[in-house]
Write a structure and sequence with these properties.
The chain is 76% helix and 0% strand. By secondary structure, the chain is an all-alpha fold. Helix 15 runs parallel beside helix 17.
């Protein structure tokens, strides 16, 4: 051990306020970076000369790297100290943000986004841990409430900031804006939090489990990202990636199930309540997050929206979520959390059905209103689900269960994005073929020729119209499928028993 005591005296006065701001700002920045790039994908794709589906790698690479690093948070904090790990994670996040902004190729940008995710993954749980150490017990609930608001507000501002910055300056600045924040938080961490550093020891890390996790997750995500462009399992590379992912996953399960100190504690899945809750979470969050990626792309590539207005349209989800969060928090202690979760996810399914009627002529408010309604259901989904999942495990397993929850939630977002964007593109391709097969364009070509259009210009205009309608149909198909997934996720939650105990503030990552 390093000689520091396990318990540290909470901070007081101005240092306490400043430290709280540093931790809240850190969480805000990390969460912001999960959504800020969503509306900038078309800008980045055009700048780097890549397809839109390749552009989504920028989002999935960050999410996967973050998911992989979250289970390592406890080991990193125990080995190097909570404050030291927090500070170096923040410095690394800032450095990789600079490199992301300087990237000139897709490979470089994806590699740097992986670096961002690896450094940023532990920052959210570490900021929670440090908040609990610097505040007195009677102040912790209020402090965690303020911290939680940054988690809600950041996804609202992410699309707006990403769109405005991409349109007004360039996409590079969505990464450069992290630099002053990272520098400030790293400096604040060193100066303000050193008094609450935790003890360190030479902990053993499950190296085999870590390598197996990296192997199967990496193979799976690469397979999902490259599959469409390589004709899926008709390509030997995709087959090999699929086999590697499957075998790696099975060996990972066998190893982690028998390891004394696993990198991911799979033993928490013996609790039926936890297993069902995280399955529902993975299905619902993966579907929700994928829509947050598809909608901005559709608005910009087919509907003629700028990144700024695409950001405004998608950000309305967070407005209602902010309003409803305190209401749901009070209801959780009075109403069966299973009913709240079921209502919340069914509400998400209902708003997906509203989007099924979207078409290429939809105006701004027709697009933004379902987004606003969606926000009503978000707190009903997230807050009680945490209570159900973590309330189903033993108190000493709460930290491990929270880490597994965070890992699966983030992985579900990455996998859902890859699968849905592939399905969206494939659906658009089928719709385009069907429209073209039924299209009789001779009259339109003649009318356009009479107005002075050349034959090539007329054909190009018709092709663009067909593409626009094809992607509108594909978007409707994706949301119809999403509604069915939401209904399934809502129904299975009734397979979990009511939680046996209350869950303390700050338990979930």
């Amino acid at each position: 051990m390093n000689g520091k005591t396990e318990t540290a005296a909470p901070l007081t006065g101005v240092p306490l306020i400043l430290a709280g701001v540093v931790l809240a700002l850190t969480n805000f920045m990390v969460v912001l970076d999960t959504t800020i790039a969503n509306v900038s994908v078309p800008h980045i794709s055009g700048s780097l000369g890549i397809s839109g589906s390749q552009g989504t790698w920028i989002i999935t690479s960050y999410a996967v790297a973050e998911a992989v690093c979250v289970p390592l948070t406890g080991w990193l904090a125990g080995r190097f100290g909570t404050v030291r790990t927090f500070t170096f994670g923040m410095i690394g996040f800032g450095v990789f943000s600079v490199l992301c902004g300087l990237s000139t190729s897709l490979g470089m940008l994806v590699a740097c986004r992986v670096g961002q995710g690896l450094c940023g993954g532990p920052l959210m749980p570490l900021s929670q841990t440090l908040l609990m150490r610097i505040f007195k017990p009677e102040q912790r609930a209020q402090a965690m409430g303020v911290w939680s608001m940054t988690t809600v507000v950041a996804p609202i501002l992410g699309p707006i900031l990403g769109g405005t910055i991409s349109d007004s300056w360039s996409w590079h600045w969505i990464f450069f804006i992290n630099i002053p924040v990272a520098a400030l938080c790293a400096f604040g961490g060193m100066r303000l939090l050193s008094k609450v550093e935790t003890p360190t020891s030479k902990l053993r890390v499950d190296r085999v489990g870590l390598m197996l996790m990296l192997l199967w997750i990496g193979a799976l995500q690469i397979m999902l990202d490259l599959g469409r462009e390589h004709d899926w399992f008709n390509d030997r590379t995709i087959v090999m990636l699929g086999v590697t992912a499957l075998i790696g996953f099975l060996v990972f399960l066998a190893w982690e199930g028998t390891e004394d100190q696993p990198i991911v504690d799979l033993r928490v899945f013996r609790h039926r309540g936890f297993t069902v809750a995280v399955l529902s979470l993975a299905l619902a969050f993966g579907t929700f997050f994928s829509s947050a990626v598809i909608i901005p792309q559709w608005l910009q590539t087919s509907m003629g929206y700028t990144a700024t207005y695409a950001g405004y349209a998608t950000a309305f989800t967070g407005v209602a979520a902010v309003i409803m969060s305190p209401i749901v928090a009070k209801l959780t202690s009075k109403v069966d959390p299973r009913a709240l979760v079921c209502f919340g996810i069914l509400w998400l399914g209902f708003t997906s059905l509203l989007r099924v009627h979207w078409n290429s002529q939809a105006d701004f408010w027709s697009l933004a209103f379902p987004q606003m309604l969606q926000g009503i259901g978000m707190p009903f989904f997230f807050i009680p689900l945490t209570t159900l999942a973590l309330g189903s495990v033993r108190p000493e397993e709460t930290a491990s269960a929270a880490g597994v929850m965070a890992f699966l939630r983030t992985m579900a977002g990455a996998i859902g994005t890859s699968v849905s964007t592939t399905a969206w593109d494939d659906s658009a391709r089928v719709a385009r073929s069907e429209i073209a097969a039924r299209l009789n364009s001779n009259g339109t070509v003649d009318a356009m020729a009479a107005q002075g259009f050349s034959l090539d210009q007329a054909r190009l205009a018709i092709a663009q119209l067909v593409d626009k309608e094809a992607f509108a149909l594909a978007t409707s198909h994706i949301f119809l499928l999403s509604a069915f997934v939401f209904v399934g996720a809502a129904m299975i939650i009734w397979l979990t028993p009511r939680p046996r105990r209350a869950v303390g503030a700050g338990a979930a990552h």
